[in-house]
Specification:
2 domains, Ribosomal Protein S5, domain 2, lpxc deacetylase, domain 1, globular, alpha+beta, 21 strands, single chain, 5-stranded mixed β-sheet, 334 residues
Length: 334
């Protein structure tokens, strides 16, 4: 398929319009940490920079093969073993906002928890502004179904024209129970349905987590805690299904480690480990995915509503489906 990109612009890479900074407590490590997101040039990708490290390489590019730990959160590391953890909430906000290139300075090994959701990160991004850059955005397009399963938990990804999430959780705790959400998380849907959903833990897990050196910074200010049929937080829940909304947020962030994704992801009883296994399984099969560009639908003339009208519009598009949102150009030539 060929698109005349001089007439039909493709989706472009983006970065922030200005730096954005925040400070807070790390959820698992408990340290106070400062983070600054800074605009970055075309092709940079998302890169964390550990400013507290000066004895070796402190840049940590975000890639699927950089994930080194998925215990209760997602951790990435560089070749020198320098890591940064709990990146999934910020990654979800960057995914929703369409940010491709960013340098993130941080003075510790874990991102600040903020309120346990992605809402503060999204607000920072929107305050700084997202600016388009003069280079095409590269998407990962799923070509065939890929599935991973561990016990009664499984995750599946299959072809779809956008990112689509279908997430189900099933906990014995009556306060959580079985919940399901489906969403195509563009920035509007993300802001309205996922961004403010907080991470959660069960009361009986908290002691064990802290003995394992996790959740040291956890509190009612940055996590929901449930005990059987009770939510212990004084303010209660933000949504009756806040738990599954947060799991969808986590999944979105974990998938964005591999870049912008075009596919339908179904996750049942999944967590960070299974999310990452799915991403690795997808990339391990070269016939299951390809890189692609997408046309900017907003740039299409009003009369280009279907294939016939497109052909009549000066043959601006040589071949295109009726659903203009699926217009693509492969990047095999890049």
């Amino acid at each position: 398929m060929t698109i005349d990109v001089s007439v039909i612009p493709v989706q472009r890479q983006a970065t922030l319009g200005a730096p954005a900074a925040c400070e807070g407590v790390a959820l698992h490590g408990g340290e106070d940490v400062r983070m600054v997101m800074m605009p970055a040039p075309i092709g940079t990708g998302i890169v964390f920079i550990r400013t507290d490290i000066d004895t070796c390489e402190n840049d940590i590019p975000v890639r699927a093969d950089a994930v080194t730990d998925v215990t209760r959160c997602t951790t990435i590391s560089n070749y020198a073993g320098i890591s940064v953890s709990t990146i999934e909430h910020l990654m979800a906000a960057l995914s929703a906002s369409g940010v491709d290139n960013l340098c993130i300075e941080i003075d510790g090994p874990e991102l600040p928890a903020m309120d346990g959701s992605a809402e503060k990160f999204l607000q920072m991004i929107e305050t700084a502004g997202v600016v388009s850059q003069p280079a095409p955005r590269r998407y990962v397009k799923v070509l065939k179904p890929v599935e991973v399963q561990v016990g009664d938990a499984y995750a599946r990804i299959e072809p779809h024209h956008n990112l689509h999430l279908d997430v189900t959780i099933d906990f014995a705790d009556a306060a959580i129970g079985r919940q399901r959400i489906e969403i195509e998380p563009d920035v509007k849907a993300f802001r309205g349905r996922l961004a403010s959903a907080r991470t959660f833990a069960r009361a009986h897990e908290v002691v064990a987590l802290r003995e394992a050196g996790l959740s040291l910074g956890g509190s009612y200010d940055n996590a929901i805690v449930v005990d059987g049929d009770k939510v212990l937080n004084p303010g209660g829940l933000r949504y009756s299904d806040e738990f599954v909304r947060h799991k969808a947020l986590d999944l979105m962030g974990d998938m964005y480690v591999g870049g912008p994704l075009l596919g339908r992801v179904t996750a049942v009883r999944a967590g960070h480990a299974l999310n990452h296994q799915l991403l690795l399984a997808l990339f391990a099969d070269s016939k299951a995915w390809k890189f692609t560009h997408l046309a900017t639908v907003n740039a299409l003339p009003d009369n280009m509503e279907n294939t016939d009208n497109m052909k009549n519009a000066g043959n601006m598009i040589k071949s295109a489906p009726a659903d203009v949102s699926a217009l693509e150009e492969t990047v095999s030539a890049l």
